[in-house]
Design a protein that fits this description.
Blueprint lengths: L6 E3 L17 E7 L3 H15 L5 E8 L5 H11 L3 E6 L5 H11 L4 E4 L11 H10 L6 E7 L11 E7 L16
Parallel strand pairs: 2-3, 2-5, 3-4
Antiparallel strand pairs: 1-4, 6-7
Length: 181
């Protein structure tokens, strides 16, 4: 199935990654990936470890025209991970375009982004969800994480979530999205 902007959903014989989930999940994890064959399996396992049993979620991986085994690894992963949807750009379009594609395909009202190389730790997602829950609001929020002093991004140091009212110049990570039809 062709997607927007030259994207192709799935890469398998049926042309789609997996059947859609029966209802919109609470969060969508969007992961842009290019030539991440060695990283995508462990990253998906880490997402499952962080979120299974905690929140209803989906994972949308956007393969940005990989020339390695990433498409094959994603086809295999979809079979074992029904929450995973995979979409493939026919040609490399860049990380920003991949994020755009993933966010447009995401079905949840809240979006979490992770890099396909594992740079961002999925174990940090529950802390962001807790920060969001602590400040429920009808206003659009940007939930961000800051690294505690003395630690670096990607380390297992503690993160502090910070819900901030969404405004001009910010990216929306929690926003209403149209229901899939």
């Amino acid at each position: 199935m062709l997607g927007r902007e030259g994207s192709q959903e799935g890469d398998g014989p049926a042309g789609s990654a997996s059947p859609p989930l029966p209802r919109a999940p609470e969060i969508s994890v969007v992961i842009p990936a290019r030539d991440e064959a060695d990283n995508i399996g462990p990253l998906l396992a880490d997402v499952r470890a962080a979120l299974d049993g905690r929140v209803d979620y989906e994972v949308v991986v956007v393969d940005d025209g990989s020339v390695d085994a990433t498409p094959a690894r994603l086809r295999e992963a979809v079979l074992a991970f029904p929450r995973l949807r995979s979409v493939r750009h026919r040609a490399p379009s860049g990380q920003s375009a991949s994020l755009w594609t993933g966010v447009r395909l995401a079905r949840a009202p809240w979006i979490v982004t992770l890099d396909g190389d594992g740079q961002n730790d999925p174990a940090d997602i529950p802390a962001l969800l807790d920060a969001r829950a602590a400040r429920r609001s009808d206003r659009l929020l940007l939930v961000t994480a800051t690294v505690s002093p003395g630690t670096t991004a990607g380390s297992s140091g503690p993160l502090r979530g910070s819900p901030t009212p969404f405004g001009a110049g910010c990216s929306a990570t929690g926003h209403p999205t149209p229901a899939a039809g």
